[in-house]
Amino acid sequence: MLGMVSSVSAQFTNYDTINSDLPSNFVCGGVAIDTNNNVWVGTDAGVAKFDGTNWTVFTTADGLPVNIISCIAVDALNNVWIGTDGDGVARYNGSTWAPYTFADGLCDNGIHHIACGNDSSVWFGSWGAGVSKYQGSTWTTYNADDGFPTFEGILATVYYITTDAANNKWFGTDLGLVKYNNVTFDTINQTTTPELKSNYITSVAVDADNNKWMGVLSKGLTKLNSSDAWVANYDTLNGICDNGITDIKIDDAGKVWLGEYTKYGALIKGGITKFDPATGSGVSYKETDGLIDEQIFRLAVDRNGDIWVATGDGLSKFHDALGIKESSTNMSVSLYPNPAHDYLNADCDVRSGIAQIADITGRIISVQNVTSPVKINVENLINGLYFLRITENEMTYLGKFIKQ
Description:
The protein has strands spanning 11-15, 30-33, 39-43, 46-50, 55-58, 71-74, 80-83, 89-92, 97-100, 111-116, 122-126, 131-135, 138-142, 150-151, 154-155, 158-163, 169-173, 176-180, 185-188, 201-206, 212-216, 220-224, 230-234, 245-250, 256-264, 267-276, 281-285, 296-301, 307-311, 314-319, 329-332, 335-336, 343-346, 353-358, 364-370, 374-377, 384-392, 395-403. It has 404 residues and is mainly beta. Strands 31-38-37-34-35 form a five-stranded mixed beta sheet, with no helix packed on it. Strands 1-30-29-28 form a four-stranded antiparallel beta sheet, with no helix packed on it. The protein has a four-stranded antiparallel beta sheet with strand order 2-3-4-5, with no helix packed on it. The protein is globular. The protein starts with 10 loop residues before the first strand and ends with a strand.
């Protein structure tokens, strides 16, 4: 309801050092989901993997460059990447951790955000030293000479990175929202878009309709349309629990999930919000609803549609009981040809179904109506790994495929 923060009973499962093998409750490095639906978290005491039953913990004894993790991500090949505040990054290939630093071609040893492109590239954001791309075995760094924004000779600080369906890279910085179309950098800021409440963009997500959703430092949420034009600003009057938005994720139903917190002296105010673009309003969840802590660092959406919340005092999993009803029957589906080029066939019997294609981040990038024999157009997808979900009534067919 306009003018107040809505709150409802939620279904949270919480993990901390008391009831699990989480190495620390300070999950400052965030959370990521791999292709097997394992949950990876970065803490100030190492990295933990959770498969739904068992925890596996990694520290410097296992090859991490340092135990304090600043960010975490999973790439198209299912490698896990972590960033640190001064000791570079590291990649886990399922057996060993490989460290990389400035000496290897990384833009800086302090990396604050990592994101993975649809083309197997991995992107790294720094505070004032540009951005780096790792692809194959090659490092490329972009700075002022390449068009990355600067102010009085100082490169922009990168708070966040995401990739859209067309493989454009979007950087949330202290100088605006920066778009890289793999050729040039362009910046959206208060000069180009006066309706923007600040140039400090703390988080970015792109939905299936190519709308951009931005967290604006202490100013709430801003929406740009598919042409990158301003649409609206939203704040606590629209049901967002706090205007300090730290992360944005979009679920299969198109709902925009926000992680928020602001420190007011010794007091921390925050929580998570499920924001509905259709109504322009949100439903928020806080500690009183079962959330383990209100200092929210990062969010992740897993393959079941559950929301994982990395906080300053543990890890929460939220099952949205008010969201789209989960199918009572899930079945794996045979997909061919796989890898696919133009079209993908699915071996399932549907009379009138809906096919959703998600990228490795879980973002829905294609929705098609299908009927048997099921044939799905994939020719416009960027090469990479994708997940397919076909639903009809209470039946759900799940599969994954590679586009080449």
